[in-house]
Amino acid sequence: MEVNGQLALTVLMGVFLIAVAAWLARVEDWRSYTPLAGGGTVGGTAEQYVSEEKPSGVIRWLTTVDHKDIGMLYGAYALVAFAVGGLMVVLMRIELADPSMTLISNTFYNSLLTSHGITMLFLFGTPIIAAFSNYFIPLLIGADDMAFPRINAIAFWLLPPAALLIWAGFFPIPDVIPAQTAWTMYTPLSAGVGSGNQVNAGVDLMLLGLHLSGVSATMGAINFIATIFTERNEKVSWANLDIFSWTILTQSGLILFAFPLLGSAIMMLLFDRNFGTMFFDVDGGAILWQHLFWFFGHPEVYILVLPPMGIVSLVLPRFAGRRLFGFKFVVYSTLAIGVLSFGVWAHHMFATGIDPRLRASFMAVSLAIAIPSAVKTFNWITTMWNGKIRLTTPMLFCIGFVSNFIIGGVTGVFLASIPVDLVLHDTYYVVGHFHYIVMGAIAFAGFAGLYYWYPIYTGRMYQVTLGKWHFWLSMVGTNLTFFAMILLGYGGMPRRYATYLPQFATLHQVATVGALILLAGQIIFVWNFVQSWLEGREIEDGDPWDLADDDLVTAEWTWFERKLETAVTDGGEDETDLATDGGRTVDDAEADSADDA
Fold first, then answer.
1. pLDDT at res. 90
2. To the nearest 10°, the Cα dihedral for 430, 433, 438, 442?
3. ∠ at Cα 558 (555, 561), nearest 5°?
4. DSSP 64
5. Does domain 307-562 sit in CATH 1.20.1560.10?
6. Which residues does the UniProt record annotate as the domain Cytochrome oxidase subunit I profile (predicted)?
7. What is the pLDDT of residue 58?
8. What is the DSSP secondary-structure string of 394-434?
9. Domain spanning 64-281: CATH superfamily
10. With a threshold of 0.90, does the pTM exceed it?
11. Distance (Å, rounded) from C-alpha 159 to C-alpha 213?
12. If you write DSSP's letter for every residue of 489-542 in order, what string do you get?
């Protein structure tokens, strides 16, 4: 009877999906318009074409294939996921302020731990990068749109159901509880062996959601590779391709090889859980899962960090007043990281008892991959050396990225050493290390991009003071939280524990204070972001950062200038009244420059 009910539900959902597809086909002729993008049209005709052909309201966002609209959808989705994952971890940190179980149960803590990791990596990290790349890659390379606009839209619309499946255990669904496997989903725990909570359908739903997110990322990667190879303007060669596009191209190649393996491993795990197969529920199955997972999992780190490196490499020189130092070496180091990233996965497995000769080879490659990362770091520092530094909000986040990345990178080099890793494995040291990369570097670069390109996608300027408050609270909170975790790891505190010995209480409380400071910074960010979008001063100058003064204008700002020139004048403020990110008006800044001269 239960099988028949499940079959009926499956058929019903299939009919529902077909009905939705038919309705979307009716409400809009998908061939009726070609979305406008990076300079493909100029003049008033383009604006009239948009207003006549594009649907409005909710239908526009449900049916759009415009790369800029899809970039906005990715951005909104990623920021919502960032908020959900952030609130999860704040609740965990409040619980960890006391050594015993106080606020939430240990099982619910495990649920939050699992969902926080998956949310931040798969529902925030990858989509926020897709937001920037969808909006700006076609503009930077002079393309009209992505190579496959409809596939681009499909790739995004796979993500909302993926999030619902991953979070399904938190919804009031009968007999479904959240997964408690941690984000690595190690077997035999995740295979449902025994009579614990992992036999619950919440784990299956989470795995299906992860699979959907992987399909989405793979479709997007194919699209970006095809776009950068085939849709570039004839003036954009490989020699003058911008650094952000290089990092997205490399990231897309990594996705193409890494995510399908994760999808295959997830399907094997689902078959073990539901159809009686024995991929992982045998001797050696736990080691097999770790090999399959980390062959994806370590390239995933670079999938997440390479595009933020590209953002910093693009934004930082604009506020240093000079071009990126050693551009070719930054490109070569990007490609080197992409290749080497597939040769380091087993450094996550030094403590599993694998052959010492294998461990030594993986240690060598793990140490070697630090070299191209160091090349980038020295290039960023040299770019700032003797430059005309302007401490705008995007520049502050770029500098914060570099400093946090150095700490995260150096602590990672220690973990690449077998003797050190055997001591620190599965302690809070590991948690502090990768959070310096994920929050201290990746999120900081994301904020740098959001502030730098804010005038383009909103047409307004954010509140400068609030932006800098956001940076300093984030910087202080990040270092308080994660440096305390590194010290906890040195003290021997194991990760993933909801309770702990009293001697660790002080450092846990410091980490909790840091997390609350981080929360305050993100609240300021949300207020500034939304309020400025609604009421901020309108941008009337296509070069709001005065990049032309140093001949550092890039293609997206040229497109933005044309967009402003073709817009209908609405009686906005004169551009001389627009405050720069230094808190002074443009006239004041020009006067100071004249005095200095």
1. 96
2. -160
3. 155
4. -
5. no
6. 61-545
7. 87
8. HHHHHHHHHHHHHHHHHHHHHHTSHHHHHHHTTBHHHHHHH
9. Cytochrome c oxidase-like, subunit I domain (1.20.210.10)
10. no
11. 6
12. HHHTPBTT-SS--GGGHHHHHHHHHHHHHHHHHHHHHHHHHHHHHHHSPBP--S
CA–CA dist 211, 298 (Å, integer): 18
Residues 6+ apart with CB under 8 A from 99: 499, 500, 501, 502, 504, 505, 508
Extents of the domains making up the chain? 64-281, 307-562
DSSP secondary structure string for all residues of 376-405 = HHHHHHHHHTTS-----HHHHHHHHHHHHH
Q: Residue 187: which region, alpha, beta or left (left: phi > 0; alpha: psi -120 to 50)?
A: beta
Residue pair 272/279 in contact by the 8 Å Cβ criterion? yes
Low-confidence ranges of the chain (pLDDT < 50): 1, 3, 27-52, 568-579, 583-597
**Cβ-based neighbour number of residue 355 at 10 Å:** 9
Rounded to the nearest angstrom, the gap between the alpha carbon of residue 192 and the centroid of all alpha carbons in its chain is 30
Q: In the structure encoding, which two tokens stand for residue 72, read together?
A: 């906005």
- What gap in Å lies between CA 503 and CA 490, rounded to an integer? 13
Query: Coil, helix or strand for 185?
Result: coil
Residue 232 CB contacts under 8 Å (≥ 6 apart), including other chains: 141, 142, 143, 241
Q: Given this model, what pLDDT does residue 199 score?
A: 87
Residue type, 260: P
Hey, what are 231's tokens?
A: 């849709």
**What's the confidence (pLDDT) of residue 71?**
96
CA-to-CA distance for 183 and 58, rounded, in angstroms? 34
CA 391 to chain CA mean position, Å = 24
Distance CA 490, CA 434 (A): 15
- What would the pLDDT profile of 124-133 be if each residue is shown by its tens digit? 999 999 999 9
| Residue 219 CB partners (closer than 8 Å, separation 6+) | 151, 154, 155, 158
Query: Which residues are bridge partners to 585 per DSSP?
Result: 579
523-544 burial, b for 16+ CB within 10 Å, e for fewer? ebbeebbeebeeebbbbbebbb
163 and 123 in contact (C-beta within 8 Å)? Answer: yes
